[in-house]
Structure formats: structure tokens, C-alpha cells
Amino acid sequence: MSLFTLTLSLLLGFQFVHAGLPAKIYGVNLGSWLLIEPWMMPAEWISMGGEICNDCSKCIQSEYAFSEKYPDTVDAKFAKHWDTWFNQADVDDLLENGLNAVRIPLGYWIVEALVDRKTEFYPRGGIKALRRGLTQLKKAGISVVLDHHALPGVHTPNQMFAGRCTTDVQFYTDYNFHRALVWTAVMTALSHLDPAFETVASIQAVNEQIMDASKTPGYGEFSKNFVKTVRAVETLLNIHYKRGHRSFDDRASSNFTATMEKMSRTSTFSLPVAKALQDAVPILVSLAVELKIQTSIFGLSSLFRKREALVTNFMDIGWQHNNPSNPADAAIGPQAYDSHLYYNFGGVAAPNEEAHMRHICNLNRIETNAALGNTPLWFGEWWLAPMFEASDEFLRKFADAQKLVYGRSKGWFFWNFKIEQSDVIPADYPRTRSYTECVRRGYLTKNPAAVHDPHVCDPYITPAVPA
Ligand SMILES: *[C@@H]1O[C@H](CO)[C@@H](O)[C@H](O)[C@H]1NC(C)=O
Q1: For the CA of 282, the nearest atom of ligand 1
Q2: Each residue of 172-209: pLDDT tens digit?
Q3: Residue nearest to atom 2 of ligand 1 (CA)
Q4: Looking at residues 95-102, what average pLDDT do you find?
């Protein structure tokens, strides 16, 4: 920091805003809030005008299908959902349960200007709901990971969480990688400049890309450009993301978007990053006006933000097979890795208690990932559903074992903070997939750092083979 900026900061009294992650994450996903997955809330979805069917591409069972069907009412219907599914009562529940972080799944359409309205159909207005929720989370001191969960062009086939259920997967193309980088530039800028985003500590590039790496061409290069885009915005904001970082000082301008525009036309950044910054400028300019945050976006203070660098986040290397790229190769500055583990879909452990307990208690993912540079790691999605009908007693053990093992990493985010309670939802969904309900039933302890039995894994640990 130059003497000039230092003096200015002192004069204007800027505070050091600490936006880091908790030392140990005890968190939940805010699933089905700004990205609806109808399976978690079928009664509400049907009452909104949606449908439930076995193959989600065959009925109105995604945000895309709903928005295409109801162009005139979709925004109002979704606004009501955003207000009711996650609000102050839910923030109070998080605090009551001792949680310190949330992961927020988002679609690319939260940045509305990225949507090609001729062929793409999604609700509008989500950004305002996001700001409302972030403001409440900030007051509660809860850290946030913004998770790019549904990517432009659709990044995985026939999944409600991708926003559109289709086999026409177009994310892995230059056009859609570019749109995802623009999203990244906008979200990074907002994270550092919009006061509502103050507890945002991390952005995840892509949730659950296709597992077969041969079907995700360009993903490794995109990962590198994702990190470079985050760091480019931070460079322009003088946010230091690594030791020996050189300050960027544009004293000619006091306006962040003007600086971003100017610098994106120089050779400071690589072409994909420069193009993303260029296209992010008009979006930020109009968001500044729409959200009435002109002072934070254009103001003098924006160039002297005392924020910690964002933690860039990717699915861990173990998520993919078939010669995947290593996300560790993309790291510049703080980065973390995200592992997901679901037992109920099969392919993990045989459908009985013993096999499930043995598997979780001997899990070595943290170590195998660390050996490939994928550390720190957190478990960004998990729940209590096993592959069989579970007793209450088993769910308590299974909860303990998962928390003990995931607790050895940077921490965890349970999926999900809530699940609808209704006549049409299978009873097992809230019972094994809703954090609040699992605490209420006593499977999960009220204190997330505690367990019922710290020795729950003892009988299942496979002894190390003597050398
Ligand atoms: C800041 O620059 C943008 C262009 O990037 C412009 O639209 C805006 O009016 C400027 N605002 C101020 C306050 O100078």
C-alpha cells in the first residue's frame, strides 16, 4: 500500500473488513431457495403450477420449464417462494443450531443480463432476494460460499439442480465458459463492493460437473480462467491475494467500473479474462443503479477496499474420473476443494449398516486429496440417507460417524437446511435430508461440533496392515 492510499484510508476511516471462513465450518446448504429443486418441495411446487414426474425432462419440473410455461406470472410466483423458503426465522434456526456458514446454490440467471431471453427461460429478481438474505446472514455473522450451481448452457444432463432438465449439455463451450466468467467477475465485484455481500468468503466455480472428464472438454482451462478472473477483479481493488503482491494504483480514476473498463482494454490480463471484465462492466453499472449501490460501486472507497481475498473453490479432483484436470493447478492465492458424499444413490457401500459404517469410518478422501494438492477440503454436500430403511439408532450412529470424519477436514455443509413437510413428499426425505428435522429428531446433536459417541467408529476401523 502506498503512503498515499494509506493516508487516505486512515483519513476516511476505512475499517478492516474480515470476510474469512470460520476455522472449522459447520454449515448447511440453502438448497431450493434461489435455485428450486422441486423434489424438495413438491406440495409448494404443485401449488405454484409445477408438476412432479419420474423423468424431470418430461414435465414442468425445473425452473426453466416453469418459466417457459408461465412467462407472465413466473417472477411473482418465485418472489413469493424466495421470501418464504428462506427468511429471518431460518437464520434464527441456523444460529440456534450453532451453525457458522452456509453454501448458497445459484443459477447463472441471478445475473439476469447473461440470459438470452429468446431461448432461455428463468425468473427475474433473484438478485434482490439474494441481497436480502445476505444482509440477514451478515447480521447473524454467518459466512457464505456462493456456489455457481447451475451453469449457462446446462452443465450436466437431466438434473433439476442444473436449472433445466435436458440431455442437450452446452456448458463446455467457449461461449458458455465466457458467460460463466462474466458471472464470476460480477459476483467477485459485488462480494467486495456491495455491503450486503460482506460475509461472502468464497465462490465455487462449478457444482458437480459431469463426472466423466472426457465429457467436459475445456473444464481445466476454464478453472484456471475462473481463478484469474477472481484475482483480476481483486487486483483492481487492491486486494492482496498472495505475498509480495504489487499494489495496483489507478489514481486517475475514483470509479471502479471506469477503472475496470480501462484496464480490460490493456494487455494487463489474458484475453478470456479481459473479455469477461469488459462484459461485466455494463452489468455492474446497471446493477449499481438498479440496486441503488452507486456509491459502493463507483465511489472512491471502492479502490481501497480492505478485504480478504476470496477463497476460490472447486469440486475436488476425486469427483471426476477418466484423466481429470487437477483443480490445484488453477490456484493463485487461497483456494479450497469440495467433496460430496451420498450413500443412498448406490455405488458407495453395500445396503447394510455394517458396510455403511465401515465405509465412512475408513474414509481416506481427505488424505488422498491432500496428496494431490487438494487441500483444504470441505464436505460441501452430505446427508443421512443410507441405501436401506434405517432405524433411528442407526441414523444417530451414521450422523456421528460422518461428522467425526468430515470434521477432520476444513468442515462441512449438510444438504439441506430444510425439506418440505407435506403429504406428497416421501416421509424419509425430511427425516434424513433436513438439518432442522434431523436435529429435532436427535440424530444430529444440537451443538454441531459435538457427537453422541466419539467412539462410534472404533468397532469399524480396519486395522492398518503391519508393515
Ligand atoms: C463510473 O463509470 C461508469 C462507467 O464504467 C459510468 O457509467 C458511471 O456513471 C460512473 N460513475 C461515476 C459516479 O463517476
Answers
A1: 5
A2: 999 999 999 999 999 999 999 999 999 999 999 999 99
A3: 258
A4: 98
What CATH code is carried by the domain that includes residue 414? 3.20.20.80
* Whether residue 216 has its Cβ less than 6 Å from ligand 1: no
The answer to whether residue 244 is domain-embedded is no
Please indicate whether residue 381, judged by its CB atom, sits closer than 6 Å to ligand 1. Answer: no
Query: Does the residue 69 lie in any domain?
Result: yes
Domain count, the chain: 1
Ligand 1 in reach of 255 Cβ (< 6 A) = yes
Distance CA 95, CA 98 (A): 5
How many angstroms does the Cα of residue 103 sit away from the middle of ligand 1?
32
- What pTM did the predictor assign? 0.94
Q: Counting atoms of ligand 1 from 1, which one is nearest the CA of 284? A: 5
Containing 379, the helix (H) or strand (E) segment is strand 377-382
- H/E run at residue 281: helix 271-290
Q: What residue numbers bound the domain in which 132 lies?
A: 3-228+281-460
Is residue 111 within 8 Å of residue 151, measured between CB atoms? no
* 437 in a structural domain: yes
CB environment 401-430: b (16+ within 10 A), e (fewer): bbbbbbbebbbbbbbbbbbbeeeebeeebb
261 in contact with ligand 1, CB cutoff 6 A: yes
Is 412 strand, coil or helix?
A: strand
Determine if ligand 1 sits within 6 Å of the CB of residue 256: no
